[in-house]
Amino acid sequence: MTQPRPATSDLTSASIPGTAIVTGASSGIGRVYAERLAARGHDLILVARRRDRLEELAGDLRARFSVNAEVLVADLSTQEGVATVERRLATDASVSLLVNNAGFSALKLLTETPDETIGGMIALNITALTVLSKAALTAFRQRDAGTLVNIGSGAGFSPYPGIPVYGATKAYVFLFTRALQQEVAGTAVRVQLVLPGAVISEGWEVAGGDALEALPDSIVMTTEDCVDAALAGLDQGEPITAPSLHDASLLEEFLGLSGRMLESVFDARPAGRYGVGG
Ligand SMILES: NC(=O)c1ccc[n+]([C@@H]2O[C@H](COP(=O)([O-])OP(=O)(O)OC[C@H]3O[C@@H](n4cnc5c(N)ncnc54)[C@H](OP(=O)(O)O)[C@@H]3O)[C@@H](O)[C@H]2O)c1
């Protein structure tokens, strides 16, 4: 049922906020995104596998914020599930925002990680995010409007013990999303990369082990603070938002150094320390 939108002065686009698709909306960070975006007047398409959770959230959002909230049940580790969301991005011109949030981790050494878990993690964290980014940017570029938010992780900066595949999938999200930002430069389409640190969510149970309990309270953020900071970063026009990174100059240094590495690594001559070549 179509409901009137609430008046709001805090929208991600200048006029009508449009529809936001949030993947992984049934819990954790995605659920808070859905709530916060509904509070900003967005209609919602909530994507995940657990229908009951999504239905309950959709009902709550409709009641509290007078927005439309639709449930789209999809297993994004499958081609079919991804295609369902892809189709929606291609055909629904009201979609103005995609939050590529669904993802999971496994706290295991590579040699102890089942192949099925590895495949599922790569399919969800990398393949689904990539295909849905393409579908979103294809639609947004045609309209020269729209915002893509990709959820990476602080774990993508450097290898962290016990998450060899997860960390690498998030390193992919980092590089991939940075590349997309280059692709949309000069257009009105926006791409934000969000890099949470440690955030309290069911994701830690999914990952296995008691790693969250082992972390000091001082480094673990709430989902609400994480999403509020991410949206504040979006409002401020940040291309990269790291909600728990206090010293932003570190990120600048990191980006500067990685750019210098890229410039320096291509040379026809082997480096002198190898003592080979002409
Ligand atoms: N929590 C942290 O410390 C942290 C830190 C950095 C980055 N992140 C990232 O933040 C994102 C959200 O994580 P979270 O901590 O909020 O975890 P979470 O509470 O476990 O939420 C994960 C969401 O993804 C959905 N999902 C999982 N597998 C799916 C599949 N195959 N198809 C469709 N949806 C699927 C889950 O719903 P269903 O089970 O209902 O499908 C759930 O809604 C992830 O990308 C994660 O890597 C988290």
What does this structure look like?
- This protein is α/β, with parallel strands linked by helices.
- It has a single domain (19-261), classed as Rossmann fold (3-Layer(aba) Sandwich).
- The chain is built from nine helices and nine strands.
- β5 (147-151), α5 and β6 form a beta-alpha-beta unit.
- Residues 24-30, 48-50, 53, 74-77, 101-105, 124, 151, 153, 196, 198-199, 201-203, 206 line the site of NADP nicotinamide-adenine-dinucleotide phosphate (NAP).
Features:
binds NADP nicotinamide-adenine-dinucleotide phosphate; alpha/beta; two-stranded parallel sheet; single chain; seven-stranded parallel β-sheet; 278 residues
* First-to-last CA distance: 74 Å
Rounded to an integer, what's the Rg over CA atoms? 20 Å
Q: How many helices does DSSP assign?
A: 9
Instruction: Determine and state the CATH class.
Output: Alpha Beta
Tell me the structural class: alpha/beta
Mean pLDDT: 94
CATH topology (level 3) name: Rossmann fold
Main sheet, how many strands, which sense, barrel?
A: 7 strands, parallel
Task: Detail the topology: elements first, then pairings.
Blueprint: E1 19-23, H1 28-39, E2 43-48, H2 51-65, E3 69-73, H3 79-91, E4 95-100, H4 115-143, E5 147-151, H5 164-183, E6 190-194, E7 198-199, H6 203-207, H7 211-214, E8 220-221, H8 223-235, E9 240-241, H9 248-264
Parallel strand pairs: 1-2, 1-4, 2-3, 4-5, 5-6, 6-9, 7-8
Helix pairs in contact: 1-2, 1-8, 3-4, 4-5
Briefly, what is this?
This protein is of the alpha/beta class. The protein has one domain (19-261): Rossmann fold. Helices cover 46% and strands 14% of the residues.
